[in-house]
Every structure is written in structure tokens, then in C-alpha cells.
Amino acid sequence: MATSSDLEVLLEMGFERQRAELAVKKSGGLQGAMDWLEQTQDKPFEDLVSPVRTSAENDDDPNAEPPALTPGEVAQSLVCSECGKKFRSQAQASFHAEKSGHTDFAESTDEIVPLTDEEKKAKLAELREKLAAKRSGMSEQDKLDKKKNEEIRRKSTKETQDIKEDLQKKEQIKEAAAKRREKLAEVAAKDKIRAKIAADKEERRLKAEKEKAERDGRAPPAHVAAPALPTTSGPVLSKPASAYTETRLRLQTSTGNVQKSFSVNATLFEVAAALSSESGIEVQSFVQNFPKKVFDQIDFGQTLKELSLVPSASLVVR
Fold this sequence. Notes:
Layout: H1 4-12, H2 17-27, H3 30-39, H4 45-48, H5 55-60, E1 77-80, E2 86-87, H6 90-100, E3 105-108, H7 117-216, E4 246-253, E5 256-263, H8 268-279, E6 286-288, E7 293-295, E8 312-317
Parallel strand pairs: 4-8
Antiparallel strand pairs: 1-2, 1-3, 4-5, 6-7, 6-8
Helix pairs in contact: 1-2, 2-3, 3-7
């Protein structure tokens, strides 16, 4: 017969009060309550609560609880040959058959006696271990879900970072090209001004010489023609670096040598960007062995002409 101490034991184990009270009420004792709680631990409490049914209705309902032993009922033992569980009454054995699908039962001379204190402690320990194992399984699943979500977040962050870096590189190339165009326009304007100043100076000099010759009664000096360009039959002088529009670079990389031609007004940053896009090489600096020079990222904004890498040069990529 169920007592208040049975309910207190179940509550100390951590079971909910409603579920523990229902287990004591349906089973009639601590052992039956623990068996019932073990069998129904995965079912919602709402599914376990049902209106009182008649005995005829209980016979047709596979989920109905077996009736408790009536006072004065002679104890008998039935054993399930498939799982080894023992039952006091025919009703309990029938309930087990409906729940488990087992059909092979036999009579046993063993009388089912109430649990001793040691057996109760062992049963309680077993239930606690099962509950702990169930909570641990849920905790492990939570850890796996958290790890999976973290991997998805990292992958998304890396893809976003790669896109940002690619956009930054494109913006740097655009800025370098814009600066180069501005510099070319500035150089052209300065050259035009210098040519104008030189022409005005020459015109003033010729005018002064002419006026002096007229005062001295001499004929004005003849205008000296520009020296003729050398012909192919004579010795050919090498062009000055300022006369070249392109330069040829020999780039020594970790994967081999690369030879490319660039405009003399191209910046060292554009050379690095070309290597990155074509070969996937991230350039940190360029080294010229003779004369010994190191061009780091501070020098990347200067043109090949300004760095004296015209008409050709050999650079080691690092």
C-alpha cells in the first residue's frame, strides 16, 4: 500500500510531484511506482492523465493501467519467458503483454516479496543512473549542435572576410590607377610649361642678338638648325631612360621566373597586383640584387620610372 514516505522518496530522487503522485496512485507501492516511472519517462504528463474507465473499457484499451491488488488477494507469481520480469497478478502480466508485445508467460513458484531497504537503494541508484545518462545524452547533443553552429558561423565569417579583402584590393588598384593618371597629367602640364618657357627664352635671345647686330652694322646671325638625327649607317647611341615608354621586368618567384612588360608609369603596386591575380602570389616586397635595393610596400605607390627600373630590371619577389 502506498504511503506518504514513498512519495517523499520519489520527490527526493528528482521526479516531478504530479508524475510521482500519479505513479504512487496507479501502482500502489514504491516498487511499482518506480517501474511505472521508468516505463513512462518519455511520455508527456498530459498523455498519462485520462478519465476513469470501466473495467470493460480497460480491457479494450492497451494503454490502460492494470488494477492494483485487492485486499485479501492471494499472491501468485507469473514470469515473462522473453524478458524475465515477474508479476504478482494476472492483470499485471496482461498489462505487460499489451505494452511490450510479449506473449510467452509461465507460472512461477517464486513469491514476489516487498523490496528490502538495500534493494530499494539499489533500485533508486539504478533509476538515478538512467536519468543521469539521459540528461548526459541530451547534453552531448547540445554540444554537437553548438559545435555545428560554430562551424557554420566561422565559414560564413571567412567568406565575408574574403569578399571584403577582394573588394579592398580592387579599390587599391583603382586608387593607384587614378593617382597614376593624375601624376601623368601633372607631368604633361609641367613639360608643356617648361617647353613654353624654353621657347620664349630662345625667342628673346634671338631677338636680342638681332638687335645687337643691327646696332653694330652687322648682318644678323643665321639661325642654327637642330642637329640631324643619326642615320643607320653611323653609330647608333642608346636611348636615354626617359625616352622609353615600357620596361621589361624579370620577376623571380618561389614557383619560377616570370617575365612581363609594364608601362614605365605603372606603379610597383600594379606589378604586385598582376602577380597576385595571375599566380596567386601575395607580394610583401621586391629585392633588386644589383644595385642592391629593397622595395617594400611603402615604395609600392611609386612608378617604375621613378624607381629607376627602366628599360629593364630583375627583381626577387618576397
